[in-house]
Design a protein that fits this description.
Layout: E1 10-11, E2 26-30, E3 35-39, E4 42-43, E5 46-47, E6 51-55, E7 60-63, H1 68-72, E8 82-86, E9 91-100, E10 105-115, E11 120-124, E12 130-132, E13 151-155, E14 160-167, E15 173-181, H2 187-208, H3 212-223, H4 232-240, H5 254-266
Parallel strand pairs: 1-7
Antiparallel strand pairs: 2-3, 3-6, 4-5, 6-7, 8-9, 9-10, 10-11, 10-12, 13-14, 14-15
Helix pairs in contact: 2-3, 2-5
């Protein structure tokens, strides 16, 4: 006969965790290690970004997101988001949701990964977009617009996420359907990509300074080996670089382009070592 049972949880001595009453949170189960994970939600009108682990054998609870720096390197406090678990990679994935600042509520589109073994956060698929909850955001790009109260299911074998629907502002409901494939790059390919970005900047600066002989040498000897010229997209990108030998855009600025390079390089590093995107005043714990 089916029967509900009420269990009492014990708190791990590692951290002083409390399991607050909440709604709008998300929860997943690791069947192999018999552990539950709970993230976010709303409690007493405050949004949460606690990541709670409940060990089912012994019913022990701990807050994995208790450290201040770790908490600030991950998703903001959020409500009505999604949480998914990849058992083979031992990863949790958080997407979207509703956040609250001191002045307004905002809808998010961030896709975050928590590595359970290293206990670190990282953000995938580019920078997070936000939209005021007081207005409707229409689809303008090749990525889903910010939303909450949506649903995501995962094909963990192929690391494919399927997203449908959600609230996109002012009570407007979405009926769009998205698929996200995660690709994992090895260290060698990432280093090559970073090297290419730096050489791109060096090449453009040489062209702007009309040092064409040096620019051509860099293009042939250093940039060419970093491209797979048998691939159409790679070959096209490489050949397009030659345009800077003939025309330097009037808007080209060494300072702005170097700053953009810095921003592009940072996207390949953990969120915790990047400069904050939100208002610094909102990061201060009261």
């Amino acid at each position: 006969r089916d029967k509900w049972e009420l269990h009492t949880l014990s708190f791990c001595p590692r951290v002083k965790a409390t399991l607050k009453p909440r709604s709008g949170h998300a929860m997943v189960l690791d069947q192999t290690d018999r552990e539950l994970y709970i993230f976010g939600g709303e409690s007493s009108r405050n949004f949460l970004n606690e990541l709670i682990r409940v060990k089912l054998d012994g019913l022990i609870i701990e807050n994995l997101n208790d450290d201040f720096l770790l908490r600030k390197s991950g998703p903001e406090p959020v409500f009505s988001h999604t949480l998914n678990f990849n058992p083979s990679a031992k990863e949790l994935h958080v997407y979207g949701g509703l956040s609250r600042s001191k002045t307004s509520d905002n809808i998010l589109s961030g896709f975050w990964t928590f590595q359970l073994e290293s206990e670190t956060w990282s953000q995938d698929t580019g920078k997070q977009q936000t939209s005021p909850a007081s207005r409707t955001l229409h689809q303008l790009s090749n990525t889903p617009c910010p939303r909450y109260a949506h649903q995501i299911v995962v094909d963990n074998i192929n690391e494919t996420f399927y997203l449908f629907g959600g609230n996109i502002g002012r009570g407007s409901r979405a009926n769009d359907f998205w698929r996200l494939n995660l690709f994992r790059h090895d260290t060698t390919s990432i280093v090559a990509k970073l090297h290419r970005l730096i050489l791109h900047q060096q090449y453009r600066e040489l062209c702007a300074a009309e040092k064409f002989e040096e620019a051509i040498g860099l293009l042939r000897q250093e940039l060419a080996p970093l491209y797979d010229l048998t691939t159409e997209s790679e070959a096209q990108e490489y050949h397009e670089l030659t345009q800077f030998l003939f025309v330097t855009p009037e808007s080209f600025s060494q300072f702005r382009s170097r700053y953009q390079l810095y921003e592009d390089l940072l996207t390949y590093f953990e969120k915790g070592i990047q400069q904050p995107e939100q208002n610094l005043l909102e990061m201060v714990d009261k």
